[in-house]
Amino acid sequence: MSTSLSINTQSPVRRHGMLALGLAVLAIIVILPWFASQFVLHLAVLTALNVLVVNGLALISRSGQLSLGHAAFIAIGAYVGVLASQHFGLAFWSSALVGTVATAIIALVLGWIILRLKGVYFVLVTFAFGELVRLVLLDFSAFTGGANGITGIDPAALLGFTFDTRASFYALALVVALLSVLIMHGLFRSPLGHAIDSVADNAGLAESTGLSVHRLQVFAFVCGCAMAAFGGNLLARYIGYISPESFNISISVGLIIMLVIGGRRSNWGPLVGAIVLTPLPELFRGAVQTQHIFYGAALILILRFLPGGLAALPQAVRSLATRRNP
Fold it and tell me: Which of 238, 271, 300, 304 has the most CB atoms less than 10 A away?
């Protein structure tokens, strides 16, 4: 009796201790780039933007679908936002809103049609849509600049402050990334989030309880694509240049890998996946001949021993400790 009581009272303490440790490590990772080199700061900006975009992909995934054309919605948001700014003189936040809303409308129309497809058929259609968007951007060069893209994009500005340095833009990207994490955390603790998860678990059972599977998937698809579009706006303002090749299929594949490695069903998965996998190719860049081997081996090992993604590592450690100390 006393042993059982001791275990039950200590396990919440252990969980809170692991959470506190994780938050402390995250705080160090977040603060460190401001005291590091410009290259590290650049990687930190890209990581923060990837957190936002992968959260959008995670929202779609948790509704039971997997998009292989997520980069297309980043591109639509970026191009529409930049063109709205350059041709109509809109400020950054107004143009970003236009790009995000335009992308959401396209996602609504597309999603309403294709979300009745399941499995590989949906994946193939999203892949085809991504290639279609890239070809349209190449062909309509009068508006998009074609293969040359659009250069000289003004940096983001808010209330008279211009985010024209890496340090200042990292602060902006970090706030947006953390907000996206909090939004996802709040959503999937709400009845709406539970309904979306239930669709992925068993669509037939969810439908039988009165939930509209199609509408829930459309909602997740539209919101996920809107998050990608806003990330595209931020990326365009940070880099100052966009082109169709900036949003090719390899970008979509990379985002899926971040999601899977981080943890598809975890609120922390996109954050962990982006933090680990955004800088990982740079660590292997010195080994030009073998970097893809190292990268692939790292992915295989993570998937083999942590099928729930890196976000499930604390739970795996607790389970191992429990087995060793029953």
Answer: 271
